[in-house]
Amino acid sequence: MAENYVVSAIKYRPQHFNTVVGQSHITTTLQNAIRTGQLAHSFLFCGPRGVGKTTCARILAKTINCTNLTANIEACDECPSCQSYRDNTSFNVHELDAASNNSVDDIRELIEQVRYAPQAGSKYKVYIIDEVHMLSTAAFNAFLKTLEEPPSYAIFILATTEKHKILPTILSRCQIFDFNRITTKDTIEHLQEICEKEHIQNEKEALHLIAQKSEGCMRDALSIMDKIASFSGNNLTYSATVEHLNILDYDYYFKLTEALLMQDSSTVLLLFDEIMNKGFEGDMFMNGFTEHFRNLLMCKDDRVAILLDLPDSVKGRYFHQAIQVNTSYIINALSILNQSEINFKQARNKRMHVELALIKLIYIQQAVQVMSDEDGSLLKKKS
């Protein structure tokens, strides 16, 4: 059974335009181009990793050669062209990894192939060049003429994560599509669908953490979910996800803020000691605590609260705590944490540096800010 295991990123790779997540502006444009017969001869798909560039290129290659398109401009998966593509026996779709085939000779070999018409009655020959920014300058120049005036049956689809590295002469010859990072909401919905198909129990808070950790990359989200599902026995709980991803639980930040407001220095320092013993670095803690106060500030205005990318249960706790903290305290806390985070690398005693920042937060109302003016003399004023 273990030999037949397929990771979710491959098993659930979209096979049709309507299953691509979060890129409707691109899939709709491509489908309309196929419907009206206004296909460009060269495309450039660019965007962050794991958002569907190569997937869309493969779907486009399969769809334009399908002899029995559906009413929604999707491949039928039944005609000889679709079957040969599915079985990896198609002679009309060629994929080139430019990361490992980036020389002039590789491009000349590709150009030589372009001369031959498509086989088996297909209409197009499609060339997908992945990581195209890795091509050498000489290879790009060798490719220019073919890209500008290809045969009527040839379509080139270039994919890259770094558009700025591609020559302007190449960009001007391509129809450019910019892929977006996949939103947290779309990622969660897709993960939930897969969990249902795989019979994986899940908590929405856990899926939300996975979506945040993936930072808009669906491939990363699926890989993380696979790992945690194996770790927790197909039961994605919030606690298991926090443990596996080495994320500091929101609960610590809420407890610390309560202790700070009560000026309970013992509880604050003991909580920080507990955080350090769990293996979290000081800069990571301060970054998370800064984000916590930023979220509290967002909760002060309902119009801005929509910017909170949090599970509903956690969002409710933020609104509750925001009522207890006044805005001036939050702003001063953000200033102290931000400055401490900037100076963290220069500090010789990292732990004491963070503890000093926490002590400032405890007595922020009575704190005296010491600032240096242009002459280097010290100015003192109450915060």
Task: Please give a structural write-up.
With 383 residues, the chain is α/β, with parallel strands linked by helices. The protein is 51% helix and 11% strand. The protein has 17 helices and nine strands. The strands form three sheets. A five-stranded parallel beta sheet has the order 2-3-4-1-5, covered by helices on one side. A two-stranded parallel ribbon has the order 6-7. It has a two-stranded antiparallel ribbon with strand order 8-9. Strand 3, helix 6 and strand 4 form a beta-alpha-beta unit. The radius of gyration is 27 Å and the shape is elongated. The termini are far apart.
N-to-C order of helices and strands: HHEHHEHEHEHEHEHHEHHHHHHHEE
Termini distance? 65 Å
Please tell me the overall pLDDT.
Answer: 84
For the sheet with most strands, the description reads: 5 strands, parallel
Q: Given the helix and strand composition, which structural class is it?
A: alpha/beta
Strand order across the largest sheet? 2-3-4-1-5
Number of strands: 9
Rg from C-alpha positions? 27 Å
Q: Hey, roughly how much beta strand do the residues contain?
A: 5-15%
The percent of residues in helical segments reads 40-55%
Globally, the shape reads: elongated
Count of discrete alpha- or pi-helical segments spanning 4 or more residues: 17
Which residues sit in consecutive blocks of at least 5 with pLDDT less than 50?
368-383
